[in-house]
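User: Here's a protein and a ligand (guanosine-5'-diphosphate). What would the complex look like?
Assistant: Let me lay out the input and then the predicted complex.
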Amino acid sequence: MTDDLLIWLLAGGVPLVAAGAMSVLVSRRRRRPAPSVASEESDAPGSPSSDVAVAERTAAEAAAPPAFEVPAPTAGRATRLRDRLARSGSPLGARLLAVLSRDRLAEDDWDELEETLLLADVGAGPSGELIDALRTQVRVTGTSDPAQVRAMLRGQLLALVDPSLDRSLNTEPGVGEDGSPVPAVVLVVGVNGTGKTTTVGKLARVLVADGRSVVLGAADTFRAAAADQLATWGARVGVATVRADRDGADPAAVAFDAVRQARATDVDVVLVDTAGRLQNKAGLMDELGKITRVLTRTAPLSEVLLVLDATTGQNGLSQARVFTQVAGVTGIVLTKLDGTAKGGIVVAVQRELGVPVKLVGLGEGPDDLAPFDPEAFVDGLLGP
Ligand code: GDP
């Protein structure tokens, strides 16, 4: 772009880069030591000591480390998934085990088990499969030993969650045809309110904790608050946010600028937050289609993550279907798993959409995002 304009807004230590219609808010704030009362007094204009005080303060500011938060390490987050679910009482596992520990299982008991699975949003097909497989196992082994029954249930639940699915998150930067580094580009889609922006913020922290450099793209240009929210997440860990300079700007242009900015500064990963207005499928298709087309012109899409609210059950699933049709989703982020007893949605989502759950949101805290680990999940459901 020829009309690029570089403005350094030194006030407050926040450099602002305006590139054509877009602006890049680089939130690298320096820590300002709180002035003591004494230095305030000696700062009076004309005071001979004021220059020295200012010079000392400037030196102190220069030496002060940036006030960025240090995100929690990512190792061990799968264990947190298990512990959170187990601590929440995980009614699904507890209820199943309560029925399975009965002496002799009658038809009513099996019906109750199936109902429990359905109520936990596992979905009709997978619930039926689990019951059939478990019935056969119980009949063949003839066991009612609680430990054995628990082990069989664990095995069946794990099979439903499918540990064989590839849940790795592709955030490896690549190399362009000219040999220059190309950032990994992660597009985040989903209905508003599901936790998209929060997830992008949490994911940025995960990447920073893993030593990656990140740029955020605020492609939800219809809500200035969404861009502000994203910039705040980024600023906390020293990550820049590319955003539109006016409401309603072209989201694809913002996404494009974010990738361009990342390429120009050798950044590893670009996370693009999008709008999720679902009133009109054709409009959504146009918008996401254009973002995808424009992005792939500069760098291939590494991941398209669909954010889904675990508390919305079947309703959320039908909305999710629209996104998988239009956006080429490669992974699901299931948020608010801390707020539901219906962990079974994991199974239903994967079955319905044919896409693996890769990450789960476990709370509103900045580091409450964990990789989805099938074993930790099932162990969490079954409890201690
Ligand atoms: P967006 O409109 O999809 O971008 O949604 P937001 O990121 O603004 O999130 C909507 C609300 O969900 C906020 O209050 C978040 O704090 C909350 N939220 C997001 N993820 C989680 C989660 O994993 N657990 C819980 N309990 N709340 C979450």
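Summary: Residues 1-57 have pLDDT under 50 and may be disordered.
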